[in-house]
Each structure stands twice: as structure tokens, then as C-alpha cells.
Amino acid sequence: MTETMKAYGFTRGGGPSALQEFDVPAPQPGPNEVVVTVQAVGLNNRERIAREQGSSRPTIPGRDAAGIVSAVGAGVTTFAVGDRVVAHVQNSYAEQTVARVSSTAKLPDSVDFPTAAALVTSGVTAYRIVHTFGRIQPGEVVIVKGASGGVGGLVVQLAKQAGAYVIGVASARNRILVDDLGVDRFVAYDREKITQVLAETGDVVVNAAMNGAGSDQDVVMAKPTGRIISVSHSEPPLRGQITFQHTYPGDDTDAVALPLIVAGVADDTLIVDIDQVLPFTLAGFIAGHEALDSRHAGRIVVARQA
Hints:
Layout: E1 4-9, E2 20-25, E3 33-43, H1 45-53, E4 64-72, E5 84-88, E6 96-100, E7 104-106, H2 113-118, H3 120-133, E8 141-145, H4 150-161, E9 165-170, H5 175-180, E10 185-188, H6 194-197, E11 202-207, H7 215-221, E12 222-230, E13 243-246, H8 254-266, E14 274-279, H9 282-293, E15 299-303
Parallel strand pairs: 8-9, 8-11, 9-10, 11-12, 12-13, 14-15
Antiparallel strand pairs: 1-2, 3-4, 3-6, 3-15, 4-5, 5-7
């Protein structure tokens, strides 16, 4: 008899109430894979968008998981049953999920599961912005829009570690949060006209705001030879030698990015801000998506012991 497990997802599109509970077969690991019994899940805007659009078949979303290895596949030598891990996966809205070894990192006891789950997509995306796409160098001026968010906050910290001068842009109400991340300068977009005070200022302009809002502003704030890295899929009209790169949490850098981010959180050189931790139930996932639909600062997490 095939073992089953609880999972959470959607078929029809709509608001948070479109989420539902499924009974599905428990996963089995393939070669170079592990099964993780999920203890916490980080929620992401991509999942909110997927939920709004819906699907023609039951869909279990989720990329971010932290938990305990419960099975290992052929060829796995770096993980064992019982290991605490964090992983960049598919289908994490479930009691168990499968993770590739290359997208899994061991989790020290000093990092709890909700914190670990909160850092996956945001951490991988931030790493790629700073090191893969941005190639940020010491002394460069980096403007980070959405500096109070999950991705933006980690970009601020990683860019500072790379030796950049970092300007954080966020709402005035989030000033203390952003200042605590170590920005060299804070600009409140709801108190100042950022295209005036930051015109042609950034060697790198990072747009980590919701859906990459205000892309035309990015061009104005970039130096004539500047680089724009944005979560927006749409390239704005550029000027001079400015370049544009859409960023995304690809898994080809997981093997480097995940251990680096985990180590930073473990030794307190990186801060992951969590807005809410909700219970690992259908009601908890619905509440999490309601939070994704509204204004929030920091990450939304669903966890078993919330």
C-alpha cells in the first residue's frame, strides 16, 4: 500500500482561499536525492502569483524547505537520515519533499527551522544579485530598492560584505529595520523624490521591490555606465551604457549560495527578518498567502511548531 501525506496547493486560481488540502503519495528519493520531512516552509511572491493564475491540475507549490532527512537515494554520501537540512526544492507545501543533494545544505543546531526556511529563495536570489549578476566590487555605490524586504535586506548585507557603499530605499516606517542592516545611507521613497536625490548615483541599482515596481526610476538613479538588476521581467528604456538584468532564484548556484547564507546566519553576520511564523495547516498556508497579498516587512514562514 502506497504511503500518503498531506500537501497544500490549488487547482483553480483565485485568492488565498483557493488553497486546499490534498492527500498525495509520499515521495521517494532518486539517485543523488534526499527526502526531507518538512518542518518549515518559506513563502514567496511567485507562489502567490501562481495561486492567482491557477492550474488545470492539482499543484503543490513551494521552493523553500527546512527539515530532517528521512530517506536518501543511491549515490548519496554527504547526507544521512536524521540530518537537519535546508533545501531549495519543488513542492515544499507538503509534509515531505524531495531535494537534490546539490540544492541541500546541512543546518547547524544554532539555526532554527523557521529561520532556515526564510533564507532559501531570498538568500539564493540575493547571492545571485550580488555575485552572479551584479559582480559588485569594493567601493561601488549600490542602491537597493525594497531594502526592508526578504531579498533586499540580504542584498544590503552581502553588498556591504563585498565592500560596497550601500544606499537602502524603503518606506520611512522601515527606517530602523534597514539601518540595522548596515546601510551607509537611507532614503525614504515616501518622504523624498528618489529620482532627484539619487539621480545618476548608482554603479549598481538593485530593484527588489514588489514585482520590480518603478523600473523607470532605476534608469534615472543609475550612472551612465551603471548596471540594473531587477526582479522585474520587463526591461525599461535604457540610456547611455546602462545594462539591465532580470534576477531569479535559479538553482545552479545553490551548492555555493546555500552554505554561505546558512553560515552567515549561524555566525550572526547575516540577519534574516521574519514578519510572521504561522502553523503548518491549511489555515496557516491561507493566512500566509493573505500576508503575501498585503504589505509586510520580512519573510512569511509556515512551521510545524508555530
